[in-house]
Design goal:
mainly beta
C-alpha cells in the first residue's frame, strides 16, 4: 500500500525531508495519525489534513494511492 504525503504552507520549514511529495509504503491500511508518525510529523502540528479534496481527521484511513496534504495552521497578525 502506498500513500503520497505533501506538506504545504509555513510548516514546510519544519520538515526539510518533506519538501517534495513523499511516497510512504505501508504493509496495510493505517490511520492518518500512524502515517504522520511514520513520516516524523507530530500529529498535532498540521492545521488540517486533506485527502480527496476533503478535510479528514487523524482517525481517517486513506486508501491505497491516496494523497495526503498537510496544511499549516491558520495564523494572523
Amino acid at each position: 500500500m502506498e500513500i503520497f504525503l505533501r506538506v504545504e504552507g509555513h510548516i514546510r520549514e519544519f520538515f526539510p525531508h518533506l519538501q517534495d511529495p513523499v511516497r510512504i509504503t505501508l504493509p496495510q491500511p493505517v490511520t492518518v495519525r500512524a502515517i504522520l508518525q511514520k513520516a516524523g510529523v507530530p500529529p498535532e502540528l498540521p492545521g488540517a489534513v486533506i485527502c480527496r479534496r476533503q478535510r479528514v481527521d487523524l482517525s481517517y484511513v486513506p486508501a491505497d494511492g491516496d494523497d495526503l496534504v498537510l496544511l499549516s495552521p491558520l495564523a494572523g497578525g
